[in-house]
Amino acid sequence: QVQLVESGGGLVQAGGSLRLSCTASGYSYRVKDWSMGWFRQAPGKEREFVAAINANGTIPYYSDSVKGRFTISAFAISRDSAKNTVQMDRLKPEDTGVYFCGARLEGLGLPRRRDDYSYWGQGTQVTVSS
Predict the structure, then answer these.
(1) What is the rounded distance in angstroms from the CA atom of residue 91 to the CA atom of residue 56?
(2) What is the pLDDT of residues 9-66, one digit of tens each?
(3) CA 31/CA 74 separation, integer angstroms
(4) Which of 36, 83, 98, 110 could form a disulfide with 123 if both were Cys (CB 3.0 to 4.6 A apart)?
(5) How far apart are CA 88 and CA 18, in angstroms?
(6) Which phi and psi (to 5°) does residue 61 adopt?
(7) Helices and strands in the chain, H and E counts
(8) How does the average pLDDT of the chain come out, rounded?
(9) Reduced to 3 states, what is the DSSP secondary structure of residue 46?
(10) Residue 63: burial class (beta carbons within 10 Å; 0-12, 13-18, 19+)
(11) Whole-angstrom distance, CA of residue 66 vs CA of residue 99
């Protein structure tokens, strides 16, 4: 069973920075067959795409709202586990929400489409105060 564990959330003032990490383990396919992404959900809103990266960590994708402020990276830890991080700079109050890490089989679906992700972590809270 694939497990995704997020860490790094917290409370920060506007303009500050946070780094989120997600460690994935238990892949039955090779690590290089999985790409990973981040989505966030604010109270009363749907889960929205934030950033994603392809399986070999070379092609990032960002939502327009975070492009230029967030940076995603990823690397393999072993044959069946991987880690990705998202560096979040110049944070804004509208970045507040629960951030979820997801895993998607490379080549199936689209990195920005929530329903194409097969596995999710439990989420980590990010709160940006004004």
Answers:
(1) 27
(2) 999 999 999 999 999 988 776 767 889 999 999 989 999 999 999 988 899 999 999 9
(3) 11
(4) 98
(5) 5
(6) -130, 140
(7) 0, 11
(8) 93
(9) coil
(10) middle
(11) 13
